[in-house]
Write a structure and sequence with these properties.
By secondary structure, the protein is α+β, with helices and mostly antiparallel strands. It has two domains: 146 residues, DNA methylase specificity domains (Adenine-n6-DNA-methyltransferase TaqI, Chain A, domain 2, Alpha-Beta Complex); 173 residues, DNA methylase specificity domains (Adenine-n6-DNA-methyltransferase TaqI, Chain A, domain 2). 34% of the residues lie in helices and 24% in strands. The chain has eleven helices and 25 strands. A four-stranded antiparallel β-sheet has the order 2-10-7-8. Strands 15-22-18-20 form a four-stranded antiparallel β-sheet. A hairpin with a 2-residue loop joins β23 and β24.
Length: 431
């Protein structure tokens, strides 16, 4: 049954358009969550390394309007056209390159507006109205003119109900991943930072350069525990008739999703095969971000390459030029333990101490970190007991990540068919 849609501009379909572009407010260590363009991705506001502004800043900054539940956010530049919907009454602040859209509910439901903005037709219209060469951006005046196909409200609710069911399953998988990641990290902290591993009561503590450690444990620099490390890079991204082959690149910004076997990297065709052999990622490798973060956003995110992730890629798989690939001396220290240590170092601020700013870009002092930071290395039998607990957790995270990818793929296939009226919605529940 084909849709009997009308066409409305974004301006006509909204009650309010709130634009905080221009200057970003001063940030604080805690307070009100600041939503920036870089955390709006895949229909969600990402939680990775949240930024904040102080309450007093919020009071004067948000004078143009206060975000409400069911408002829709859209990025206007770097990247253009990413969308999220506010799912709670949590107080948030908006940074530059974000515009808030409040649905005119006599014309469009908030959830339908959220999904319609992600449709191919709307995305194409936005890009056609955008300007810029290196980075595409759209002015508010042009965004207002972007057209939406708007069916009757009951049909909108059915479309939103179908797509929302997939999003709820995705959110459920993400919550389970968060729980599993915290389980792995809390076990790491308990065993290797607080030294409360099985049998610790019968182990004496001895002095070391890192303070008292269990007898029989060692202290080694991070660099001493690596057998190999190399920067990313794959040559030019231009096809070469003689040496062209498809592949995937994982960037620093992709790491939060990709470490759960959710592939969000960029496909490309590379040449210069000599660059590829040493940089091709295999299970057990670790990717570490060393450059590319914006001012105020530390670099140093890391991910562990699991078999599930390699299977998900299904082809050549590299890290971007602003990341490092590393391999651990597994006869001394297991890669999974090193990976968890990096995650803890990122959150504790250890990694941030090695960050320097250059023309607004955060860069990591990799060589200094390898020499100056240390890990306490337990005996192999204790590491083996730890891995017996942790490997199934990391594997389950990978399985859930693949489930999210499959759900997203299915939702993205349904989206254009639902929007165009190709699917019969008579039996679909309203949502």
């Amino acid at each position: 049954m084909r849709s009997t849609s009308n066409t409305f501009s974004i301006e006509a379909a909204t009650d309010a358009i709130i634009d905080y572009r221009g200057k970003t407010p001063p940030k604080a260590q805690s307070g009100i969550r600041l939503v920036t363009a870089k955390v709006v991705k895949g229909g969600q506001i990402r939680e990775d390394k949240a930024e904040f502004i102080a309450q007093e800043t919020y009071d004067w900054w948000m004078r143009r309007g206060i975000p409400q539940r069911s408002d829709v956010l859209i990025t206007t530049e770097a990247p253009l056209g990413e969308v999220a919907i506010l799912r709670s009454d949590e107080k948030i602040a908006l940074a530059q390159r974000i515009i808030l859209l409040r649905a005119n509910t006599s014309i469009v439901t908030p959830k339908y507006l959220f999904y319609a903005l992600q449709s191919d037709l709307v995305q194409a219209d936005m890009k056609a109205r955008a300007s810029g060469t290196t980075v595409l951006g759209i002015k508010q005046s042009e965004l207002r003119k972007v057209l939406l196909e708007v069916p009757p409200l009951p049909q909108q609710r059915r479309i939103a109900g179908i797509l929302s069911a997939y999003d709820e399953l995705i959110l459920n998988c993400q919550r389970r991943i968060e729980i599993l990641e915290e389980m792995a990290r809390s076990t790491y902290r308990e065993w290797f930072e607080h030294f409360r591993f099985p049998g610790y009561q019968d182990t004496q503590m001895v002095a070391s350069p890192q303070g008292d450690i269990p007898d029989g444990w060692m202290v080694r620099s991070v660099g001493d525990l690596l057998s190999f490390h190399i920067g990313g890079g794959w040559g030019k991204e231009e096809p070469d008739d003689n040496h062209t082959k498809p592949g995937w690149v994982i960037r620093g910004t992709d790491i939060p999703d990709a470490r759960s076997a959710l592939v969000t990297g960029v496909p490309f065709r590379y040449h210069k095969p000599s660059n590829i052999k040493s940089r091709r990622l295999q299970p057990g490798d670790i990717i570490f971000e060393v450059s590319g973060g914006s001012k105020g956003q530390p670099v140093g995110r890391s991910m562990f390459v699991t078999p599930e992730l390699v299977a998900a890629i299904g082809g050549d798989f590299l890290c971007a030029s602003f990341c490092k690939k590393m391999q651990v001396k597994t006869d001394l220290y297991r890669a999974e333990i090193m990976y968890l240590s990096f995650m803890e170092a990122y959150d504790s601020g250890e990694i941030e101490q090695y960050q320097v700013q250059s023309t607004g870009i955060s860069n990591f002092q990799w060589k200094a970190y390898l020499k100056q930071e240390y890990r306490v290395v337990p005996p192999q039998d204790i590491q083996g007991h730890f891995l017996a607990l942790i490997r199934p957790v990391l594997s389950k995270i990978g399985v859930l990540g693949r489930s999210i990818q499959n759900l997203r793929d299915t939702r993205n296939l349904l989206l254009p068919r639902l929007m165009s009226g190709q699917l019969n919605l008579e039996a679909a529940p309203e949502g």
